[in-house]
Design brief:
single chain; alpha+beta; Peptide Deformylase; five-stranded antiparallel β-sheet
Length: 176
């Protein structure tokens, strides 16, 4: 039996970042390994969140580390669903592990409520109006094939494309 190749970050331009992900089944083979690989990659690349498509997997799984000091364990959200957002929209400089070295100011709702399952299959609710909400909303976008550049206007997106030397960042449907 051949060992699986280690997972790597999927970078901008890869079509897998535009896929809409599927719900994982409880106890699905490879789910625990996926979560462990995602956590390891997030830590190795000093990220605060990661979504399964960013490692080439099509399951609705995200990991979030809102405690920058690392004193609390990261959250693992299986099949997260956005229930509601609230508060004023706030602008924050976001980065993305799939866009190394690129940071852009993006407006998102201040608060979010997400329903999800934890790795044991228990139903959970994430209710936050801080960094955890911001990270979760960014990662949730990834599960629907939405990238941070999709939140930018055409000129700011063009600037990112020039910096990356790439023309494949168009939103699904091909419209800029």
């Amino acid at each position: 039996m051949t060992a699986a190749a280690p997972r790597r970050l999927v970078l901008y331009g890869d079509r897998r970042l535009r896929l809409v992900c599927r719900s994982p089944e409880p106890g699905e083979p490879g789910l625990d390994a996926l979560v462990q690989d995602m956590l390891a990659l997030m830590r190795r690349h000093r990220g605060v969140g990661l979504a399964a498509p960013q490692v080439g997997d099509d399951r609705r799984v995200i990991v979030v580390q809102p405690d920058l000091a690392g004193k609390r364990p990261p959250l693992v959200l299986l099949d997260p669903v956005l229930e509601e957002t609230g508060g004023p929209s706030t602008v924050f400089e976001e980065g993305c592990l799939s866009f190394p070295g690129i940071y852009r100011r993006i407006a998102r709702p201040r608060a979010a409520v997400l329903r999800y399952r934890d790795p044991d299959g228990a139903a959970r609710l994430l209710r936050d109006d801080g960094l955890a909400a911001r990270i979760a909303l960014h990662e949730l976008d990834h599960l629907d094939g939405i990238l941070m550049v999709d939140h930018l206007g055409p000129w700011r997106r063009f600037g990112v494309e020039l910096r990356l030397g790439l023309r494949r960042l168009r939103p699904a449907g091909g419209r800029a």
